Amino acid sequence: MKKVYVNEERCLGCHLCEYYCAFANSGEQEMFKAFRLGKNPAPRIQVEDGKGINFAVQCRHCDDPLCMKNCIAGAISKVDGVVKIDPQKCVGCYTCVLSCPYGCIVPGKDGHSATKCELCTANGGTPQCVQNCINGAIVYEERGE
């Protein structure tokens, strides 16, 4: 299965991946509308800035996801290798946030559900963070074990 991978040696820490991710999941058709007048869509990828190294953190779509095992509402499922959260089932307990060893699940903007990267499956299937990374630091590919 294809997954998002980051080459931290190529990451500039520009945060463009965050903006394009937030825009892709905002429901707006134009970027300026997604970010104007106090709208602040949340990205599902986060760039961590370190001393001399930057890297983007997003869901790893684990083979055996702890978030799914620990979800008390059964809101997390794995469909064709993609770990997804059903916001209609999520009760906002945030056990998944605590369970994720990578810190890739965050409380949603609505205040009662969690959110995470779903590989832009609802937005055309090509992750926007990958498509818009100007330095090619983020790739979407299948790798051998």
Walkthrough of the structure:
This protein is of the alpha+beta class and 145 residues long. It contains five helices and eight strands; from the N terminus they run βααββαββαββαβ. The termini are close together. The chain folds into two domains: 1-58 and 125-145, Alpha-Beta Plaits (2-Layer Sandwich); 62-116, Alpha-Beta Plaits, CATH 3.30.70. The strands form four sheets. A two-stranded antiparallel sheet has the order 1-8. A two-stranded antiparallel sheet has the order 2-3. A two-stranded antiparallel ribbon has the order 4-5. It has helices at 16-24, 31-35, 66-70, 95-99, 128-131, and strands spanning 3-6, 46-49, 54-57, 76-79, 82-85, 106-107, 114-115, 138-141. The longest helix is centred in the first third of the chain and has 9 residues, at 16-24.
Short overview:
This protein has 145 residues and is of the alpha+beta class.
Structural class: alpha+beta
What letter string, H or E per element, gives the SSE order? EHHEEHEEHEEHE
The value of Rg in angstroms is 15 Å
CATH topology of the largest domain: Alpha-Beta Plaits
Unreliable runs, pLDDT <50, ≥5 residues?
none
Name the helicity range: 10-25%
Strand order of the largest sheet: 1-8
Q: Whole-number average pLDDT?
A: 91
Strand content: 15-25%
Q: What is the CATH first-level class name of the largest domain?
A: Alpha Beta
Beginning-to-end CA distance, first to last residue: 11 Å
Number of helical stretches of at least 4 residues:
5
Count of beta strands: 8
CATH structural architecture of the largest domain: 2-Layer Sandwich
- Shape assignment: globular
Described by strand count, sense and barrel closure, the largest sheet is: 2 strands, antiparallel
Number of domains: 2
